[in-house]
Fold this protein.
Amino acid sequence: MKNRKLGSTGLEVSEIGCGTWGLSGTTNDNFAYGPTTDETSIQTLRSALEAGVTFYDTADLYGWGHSEKLLGEAFAGHRDRVVIASKVGYTSPEGAQDFSSDHIRRSLENSLERLRSGHIDLYLLHDPPLAAVPGALPILESLQREGSIRAFGISARSPQDALAAVKDHGVRAVQFNFNLVDQRAVDIGLFETCVELGAGTILRTPLCFGFLSKGLKGFEFHDRDRRKKWSPAQAECWTQAPDLFFGGLRDGASQTPAQLSLRYCLSFPGTSTVIPGMMLPEHVAENTEASRQGPFTAEELAHIRHVYTTNEFFVK
């Protein structure tokens, strides 16, 4: 597993991290990717650590704290081996948010208790409206000085918001959607700006909610899986996308769609880490192999970009 610097934050992270929303299963009415068990989730986290994954992304929203509890249990006695990012902002399943200083401090204290840790390595505002960012920065700076967080940033609603946070508000760690069928970050020059200004990047949804792994074709989603409510036409469009992107590539037949999708994300110098969701140890084994396989060539990236610009991947 290769490591990369998270911009100028002082943090070094595995280039493939682990998204943990799904590990909460349906605990506390979690509405993510269907049921799982705590035993399996903890086994998955420990498998990831042994595979060299050091970066773990969570939030107080995920299972309303259950994801953080799982991380605390899985890495008890190994806290110094991992870099944990958590988020703050949501206060209800309906989407209410609070970015006040009091709420941020109180939520951090609760997260630290669940994580069994004295600090959080990276603390992110969770989908904040851009107007809320300037008002929240002073409390984050204060918490950093106190030592309860090492660095801070935002998990942006869109790549455009991430760009504005970096350029206009001096944010030095941003999380945003990026994958084969969502290349908005390339469209707006986000990677180049982050490199220029020293901002670390965390790429979420690299497998487009699992659809780019090709394992979901014809899959029947659980009632507590958020994808069950999505348009069947959209799901079908995304499921077919890997064939379009990878059919003509040299490694298209020898590597899995998930590995190829992750390699694409890792091919940009501005990428700090990519966080596929991993709910089973076999997901860990498959995904971490992408780090060894390395980035695409310029010619391969040009082919992928051509497919993206000549096809429509969002059903209207």
Observations:
- The mean pLDDT is 94.
